[in-house]
Design brief:
The structure holds two protein chains of two kinds.
Chain A: H1 2-7, E1 13-14, E2 21-24, E3 29-34, E4 37-42, H2 53-61, H3 66-77, H4 80-84, H5 88-101, E5 117-125, E6 130-138, E7 145-149, E8 155-157, E9 163-165, H6 168-173, E10 185-191, E11 203-207, E12 213-217, H7 225-238, H8 245-265, E13 268-274, E14 283-289, H9 296-304, E15 312-318, H10 324-338, E16 342-347, H11 352-362, E17 368-372, E18 376-378, H12 383-393, E19 397-405, E20 411-413, E21 416-419, E22 428-431, E23 447-449, E24 456-460, H13 461-466, H14 480-490, E25 494-505, H15 513-540
Parallel strand pairs in A: 14-15, 14-17, 15-16, 19-25
Antiparallel strand pairs in A: 1-2, 2-3, 3-4, 5-6, 6-10, 7-8, 7-11, 9-10, 11-12, 13-16, 17-24, 18-25, 19-20, 21-22, 23-25
Chain B: E1 4-10, H1 20-33, E2 38-47, E3 62-65, E4 68-76, E5 81-82, E6 87-88, H2 92-105, E7 109-112, H3 121-129, E8 134-138, H4 166-172, H5 178-192, E9 197-200, H6 203-212, E10 219-221, E11 244-250, H7 257-266, E12 274-280, H8 287-298, E13 304-306, H9 315-319, E14 324-327, H10 337-344, E15 349-352, H11 355-360, E16 367-370, H12 375-386, H13 389-398, H14 405-429
Parallel strand pairs in B: 1-2, 1-7, 2-4, 7-8, 8-9, 9-10, 11-12, 11-14, 12-13, 14-15, 15-16
Antiparallel strand pairs in B: 3-4, 5-6
Helix pairs in contact in B: 2-3, 3-5, 4-5, 7-8, 7-12
């Protein structure tokens, strides 16, 4: 790390007061030392750093006891200035400081004849300030404390909050000691007060109740968000029910921040406009595209013969970014054929269903939004006007969803409700009359419903924004639309189902059930965790199936 | 007064799996649809053993059939069905999906043609969800009683079985304990307790269920009603010697495939008899059976002609050249639909002297019986039949028209109404 070297160049700089000494840590931050007190402050001068950091600290602070030195290092790492001006040079300098101040403990050698053992198997960087750690510890009485030390010197006692679980491999390994301790495994999500940017240099310390201390070096921090997500979901799936203690205490916080990071990492790279979009469009149709691009040609054919589209701002958002060129080629051809104007939003990275919608909505301008899936094909023209007229007539309407059909004229969507099996804790989304025929009488009544699908949803932009839009915290989908509807209902709006408008929804069956099991269970748990009470209230007013069939 | 809503449940849809019970279910549904004041709904099971691929949509086993808003498929995984206990291992099929379907449809009557692949649990769930609905169940074979494909034929030596018991069933299946058979019977009967009315298309079938323990006040004989084709088959060109015999249906062991092939090999070479096989599903039979059948066929070129599968609508043409229909089944049968079809076209029947065949075909009046499972007896009967034009003419005179669908529909509607009334009594006294 060359910056690090640069940061500690030079000699101690004498300041106005003789007792205060200063060393530059990065372009923005310097360290001051006066009467044994160490502080960070914004550098006031543009001078070259001129303190030898190591020498300075060694001279001034070596005499302090280990605990005091650790506290100083940790205090510097947690300083608000580090949070304000994070940089690799600063992290590098803090690492130097930690190395000078930190009292080294004996290295832990894992040995089946020695009761004290410690391992950190992985540290995942959810973002710069939040981390996920897994490992195990073993001691005489199970009372030992594990503290992680960041490369910058921040200290976190993870065993205080960690989720503990049985590790049969550890129990087996220490069998010769005939110990009685259990739950050696630990997993914890934790947050630091300020960013930690270095991937190497984490230390873990174990202090036993009888005063023995050991340390180990941790493996390099994992930073790839998708690898991290898979690892955390894997742990949730392997430690009892997915929606258990680990999810509630750790997984939820980690995954929520991770989802935010994934969306934040995805920015709008470019917006390609084909043709001339209407000046003041009445409605923006936002269609996220992921992998399957073959449906849009069918949408174009239907849209282009529908006079309603004169007032539409049609926006496609490409979430599978690797298909940018493929889509651009297709878009040119489709525009040449159908003459229907539209725009394509290209992203720097995949943002997921909710994130892609968010980008599309940001790139659009009409006062009404129609969220549409790419595999939804209108049955006949005029559907959009019919939806908009109905929307305008309903006082206090939130989201409006039409009738969606499978290719064999069975109902795919006639409104959503929430179902909880007898004795179960969690609510799942359920579809009214799914699989019944499009003419089934009870499904042909316009009515308020607990929720509607985002596969085709009309909503005023203002109301959408008022409740914060589609949530980002679900992992690969399923519950974004129902949470949006719950937010609307909580804000006092009513969601409606409109059967007079019919579109086909060629809902795929392509996902692999096994890899989707844990994310689906997690999403269902999270949805119930956040909205369970509201759902309970809402469902008390709803008869899910009812005896609405007419003879 | 609102329409009478009748839900028919069948174990297959005839467009996917040809079969007597399937064809009858659809015909009955169509006939009921013509009745003023009746709104029938047909729910036919579909699954991996009959469909080329999974046809259900995600999140629901239901899907519509063609353009008819009152016909549905219910998809069940064949692997989820417990063929021993006759129940689905996926209980959400009942607790969730079928419950929703029943609540949405609100039938006044549920008339089950079958619960195979769906499971007998459906019966209890109907009662739980719709306490007032009348439950009617038509019995088509002996699956509830017998684990040997519901045939009531012993697994050894093709011996006909008159009654089931844990001990006797364990003799047929030594690897399954008598205790398991006891539990199977208790389980099936427990769910059957919810049925208001059982219908048996033949008296012999009813007798076996009476013996098994269904109370006589809950079961009665009601023959299948049939919608007959527009025209009857013309007379065969050759009436001086009635040599042509037709077989219709599945070529399987229980249908007597080997018996008739062996018999044809024994027919006196001087007798000009010819057997025409109109059959399907040979490819579904065991490899062993297919090989045996091919071997038997080898020596019979010129005596036996295989005409392959046929559509129901082709029957008049296929019957045209035939003098006789042959039903050589080695199991009891129920009320084979071929009997009604052959009689409609005025063809006398040669059949085994057992079960539903002996009941529906009168020996010497509209057909000839031979000793079931005995190829020698069949060979002698064929020789007698094909060389005796006077006998053929006289049996032909004795043939009566089959039971018409409109009479059947009228009978069922009366029965539905009566059962609904009975249930009201139950509901009040409960």
């Amino acid at each position: 790390m060359p910056e690090m070297v640069k940061a500690k160049k030079g000699n101690p700089r004498s300041s106005g007061r003789a007792e205060e000494q200063t060393a530059r840590l990065s372009a923005d931050v310097e360290l001051t030392l006066a009467a044994g007190e160490v502080e960070l402050r914004e550098s006031k001068t543009a001078d070259e750093p001129n303190g030898s950091l190591k020498a300075l600290l060694r001279d001034e602070l070596a005499a302090l006891d280990a605990d005091r030195r650790n506290k100083i290092s940790a205090g510097l790492a947690a300083s608000p200035l580090v949070a304000e001006h994070p940089s690799l040079p600063l992290s590098g300098s803090l690492y130097e400081i930690r190395e000078v101040l930190r009292e080294r403990l004996p290295a832990c050698a894992v040995d089946a004849r020695q009761p004290v053992g410690l391992a950190v198997e992985q540290i995942l960087a959810i973002d710069e300030r939040s981390f996920w750690v897994s490992g195990w510890m073993h001691d005489e009485d199970g009372e030992g404390a594990v503290t992680l030390v960041s490369p910058e010197g921040a200290r976190v006692e993870v065993t205080k909050t960690a989720f503990r679980f049985e590790r049969p491999d550890v129990v087996q390994f220490y069998a010769p000691l005939r110990g009685t301790t259990r739950n050696h495994g630990f997993t914890a999500y934790f947050e630091l007060a300020a960013p930690s940017l270095l991937t190497d240099g984490w230390i873990a310390e174990l202090q036993t109740s009888d005063g023995v201390g050991v340390e180990i070096r941790c493996p390099a921090v994992v930073v790839d968000p998708l690898a991290i997500r898979a690892t955390i979901l894997g742990e949730l799936g392997n430690r009892g029910p997915v929606g258990g203690e680990l999810a509630a205490g750790h997984g939820r916080h980690a995954l929520t921040r991770l989802q935010e990071r994934i969306v934040a990492d995805s920015e709008i790279e470019s917006v390609d406009v084909y043709g001339e979009l209407p000046g003041g469009p009445a409605v923006s149709i936002v269609i996220p595209l992921y992998k399957r691009l073959d449906f849009i040609e069918h949408q174009f054919l239907q849209f282009s013969t529908d006079p309603d589209f004169a007032e539409v701002e049609l926006v496609f958002v490409l979430d599978s970014v690797e298909q940018k060129d493929e889509l651009a080629a297709k878009a040119r051809e489709l525009f040449a054929l159908y003459g229907l104007p539209f725009k394509v939003v290209n992203l720097t990275a995949g943002a997921g269903f909710a994130g892609a919608n968010r980008h599309g909505i940001e790139s659009s301008s009409a006062p009404q939004l129609l969220l549409l899936n790419s595999d939804v094909i209108p049955d006949r023209p005029g559907w959009l006007t019919a939806m908009r007229e109905f929307y305008a007539e309903q006082e206090g309407i939130g989201a409006l969803g039409p009738k969606l059909l499978y290719e064999d004229d069975s109902l795919q969507h006639a409104g959503l409700y929430f179902h909880r099996a007898p004795g179960a804790e969690l609510w799942e989304n359920a579809h009214f009359y799914k699989g019944l025929h499009r003419e089934f009488s009870a499904a042909n009544v316009a009515r308020p419903v607990p929720a509607v699908t985002a596969a085709c949803m009309l909503i005023d932009r203002e109301r959408y924004e008022e409740v914060g839009g589609l949530p980002l915290h679900y992992v690969q989908g399923d519950y974004e639309d129902s949470e949006l509807c719950l937010r609307l209902s909580k804000a006092g709006y009513e969601n409606w189902y409109l059967p007079q408008v019919e579109l086909y929804h060629l809902e795929g069956q392509s996902y692999v059930p096994d890899t989707r099991r844990v994310p689906s269970e997690y999403n269902m748990w999270l949805h119930s965790e956040i909205w369970g009470d509201r759902i309970e209230e809402l469902m008390a007013e709803f008869d899910p199936i009812g005896s609405q069939a007419t003879g | 007064m609102s329409d009478l809503r009748v839900l028919y449940v069948a174990h297959n849809h005839p467009t996917l799996h040809p079969g007597g019970a399937e064809a009858y279910s659809l015909e009955l549904y169509e006939a009921m649809r013509q009745q003023p004041g009746v709104e029938p709904v047909l729910l036919a099971r579909i699954g991996s053993n009959v469909a080329r691929r999974r046809v259900a949509h995600p999140g629901t086993p239901f899907s519509s059939v063609n353009d008819d808003p009152n016909q549905y498929f219910v998809f069940t995984e064949t692997d989820h069905f417990d063929f021993f206990t006759l129940t689905s291992r996926d209980k959400s099929l009942y607790s969730r999906h079928l419950t929703d379907f029943l609540l949405a449809q609100q039938p006044d009557v549920v008339h089950l043609q079958h619960t195979h692949f769906i499971g007998v649990d459906l019966l209890s769930q109907i009662r739980r969800v719709l306490p007032d609905a009348a439950i009617v169940y038509t019995l088509h074979e002996f699956l509830p009683i017998c684990n040997h494909h519901g045939q009531m034929v012993r697994t050894f030596a093709d011996e006909l079985c008159p009654e089931a018991s844990p001990r006797r069933c364990n003799e047929c299946f030594p690897e399954i304990s008598p205790q398991s058979f006891f539990l199977r019977e208790r389980f099936v009967k427990g769910h059957f307790a919810n049925v208001d009315r059982f219908l048996a298309p033949s008296a012999q079938l009813m007798d076996k269920y009476l013996r098994w323990g269904i109370g006589e006040q809950r079961i009665e004989v009601e023959e299948y009603g049939r919608l007959m084709p527009d025209r009857r088959a013309g007379d065969p060109a050759q009436v001086k010697s009635p040599t042509n015999i037709g077989f219709f249906g599945q070529l399987s062991h229980f249908k007597g495939a080997e018996v008739m092939m062996e018999a044809m090999a024994m027919v006196d070479p001087g007798v000009d008899a010819h057997l025409w096989l109109n059959g399907a599903n040979l490819e579904l039979q065991t490899q062993e059976f297919q090989e045996e059948f091919a071997r038997l066929q080898e020596g019979l070129r010129g005596r036996v002609t295989f005409r392959g599968p046929y559509e129901h609508s082709e029957l008049p043409r296929l019957m045209e050249d035939l003098h006789w229909a042959l039903i050589p089944s080695i199991w009891w049968e129920n009320s084979p639909l071929v009997i009604q079809e052959a009689f409609f076209h005025r063809r006398p029947i040669i059949c085994s002297d057992i079960g539903g065949m002996a009941e529906k075909v009168r020996d010497g009046i509209d057909g000839l019986h031979f000793r079931g499972g005995d190829p020698v007896s069949l060979a002698r009967t064929i020789e007698r039949a094909t060389t005796n034009p006077r006998l053929w003419r006289s049996l032909r005179e004795g043939v009566r028209d089959p039971y018409p669908m409109d009479a059947h529909v009228a009978k069922l509607l009366g029965l539905y109404e009566e059962t609904i009334e009975q249930r009201k009594g139950v509901a009040v006294s409960a």
